[in-house]
């Protein structure tokens, strides 16, 4: 594949820390790269170097002549005096951009609810982020570099963005580099993962799930120095195998490899045990909402909503921006009074909320972390072990060196860790999490999820992070048209409902330009007809199914033989004369050939399996 962009021998350091030293990387056509790592390790810095907005102290950035690079940073540099329309399409005549199917899709997917003539300066932070992303995506780029593109996007918009990026370029063309804490998004759009840590960038094949598998294996090898991280990631892997329906279509051979790694890992959590503990602690009544409605002026946000929250329930609340999720949490916590209806709370309920504004830290900003912890209780029980507040904070990924820092000087991720710790130390039996993934890296999220697994209480989570919702909750509800709807099918059912709602409303709410609805409707109708015909023609007869099953069995036998061949080559290489470079090279070439054959057969096996499933 052709080289697009690269960095050679990059060195960058700040007065107190070396970020990168002698770093060399390359981006080629067809690359879809997700970047992960802890906050402060240099993910955004790496993107800035690749985009050319940050000059390293040594080394150079190389690119193909005439390369077109689009970069979405976390900084907001939009012109406050421009309208939304000017920002997204500039001075392009309406007939040109309105006739472009891709631009229409971007507008519908990201900014359909934002007034087209409204000035950027009058928008909220989330709306400005959507406008900036839409303006970038309307351009033609050979490389897209995106820094936290899912921030401020609801679950439907994240799903749309993933679909857009997957279909934006033809196969083996264009390149995508993205930093995001949304692990579902990483798995959906990325073919490779770069982990930034300790001044280096370590590449892994595959998306987030594959990265976790490979990282676990790496940690097993270095168990003496990475034992804490290893145990955490092995537990994460156990959930990937046992808890995520979307991943059960992976090739059986990869799943068997994962099973070997997690054979001795206990279940992620014991719902029955936790529920028993929670009932003993809470009693039968937690919070009951009875025919509750909330209105702001003439706008009805929640309408005649009834919900009885039971002890030990772990519930995810889904819904688009502005539908009333935070209002619902406010009703439960008591910070919002209903316009009508009744809220009943149990006498033993001790509730705590993790909000988006760090309100718990507002009064202690001028104090040192160590001083804050000194005022709390001396121990906290997790998994049957007594931990000090400092040990618990370390378990959450907090560096001990920052215990002497002032709270106001902490980064967003460090504040989130401290905020969570102080919340847990109050020993609540009901926890409300309002967008807990903001300012949090993947390692911190894994630590948070691990901690919540052993927490015996009622948990309610509002988040657009699909991975987190599926990971820590046992049931999901969606706020749809002011009411609460149970989702037996989980996040997938919610996205299906959201897409159906968007389709029905598209005829009532056209794009900012007139005269495009009929054309889009005709195309949509035609697409539905074609899809139905395709479905009818794709149905397999009994004979076809039996033939596919025979082919699958034959492929499995071939793969087993190839694996035996690989093992034999590995055994020969282990005892081979290391001074015989030519012989080693020959064995290595034979091994690569077998691996390529295995990969090709696995792809064929997966395609045939999907035919049977459909």
List the helices and strands and how they pair.
Blueprint: E1 3-14, E2 17-28, E3 32-36, H1 43-51, E4 58-63, E5 69-72, H2 84-89, H3 94-98, H4 101-110, H5 125-137, E6 143-147, H6 155-167, E7 175-179, H7 183-189, E8 192-197, E9 200-205, H8 208-221, H9 223-242, H10 252-261, H11 271-282, E10 287-296, E11 299-309, E12 314-318, H12 325-333, E13 340-345, E14 351-354, H13 369-374, E15 380-382, E16 385-387, H14 389-395, H15 412-425, E17 430-434, H16 442-453, E18 458-462, H17 466-472, E19 475-480, E20 483-486, H18 490-506, H19 517-538, H20 542-574, H21 581-613
Helix pairs in contact: 4-5, 8-9, 9-10, 20-21
Main beta-sheet annotation: 6 strands, mixed
Named at the architecture level, the CATH assignment of the largest domain is 3-Layer(aba) Sandwich
Please identify which CATH superfamily of the largest domain we are dealing with: P-loop containing nucleotide triphosphate hydrolases
Determine the oligomeric state from the structure: single chain
**Helix content, binned percent:** 40-55%
Which regions contain 5 or more consecutive residues with pLDDT less than 50? 243-249, 513-538
Largest beta sheet: strand ordering: 5-6-7-3-8-9
Q: How many angstroms does the end-to-end distance come to?
A: 33 Å
Shape: globular
What name is given to the CATH topology of the largest domain?
Rossmann fold
* Average residue-wise pLDDT: 80
How many beta-strand segments?
A: 20
How would you classify the helix and strand content by structural class? alpha/beta
As a percent range, the share of strand residues is: 15-25%
Q: In DSSP terms, counting alpha (H) and pi (I) runs of 4 or more, how many helices?
A: 21
Radius of gyration: 26 Å
CATH class identity of the largest domain: Alpha Beta
Q: How many separate domains make up the residues? A: 4
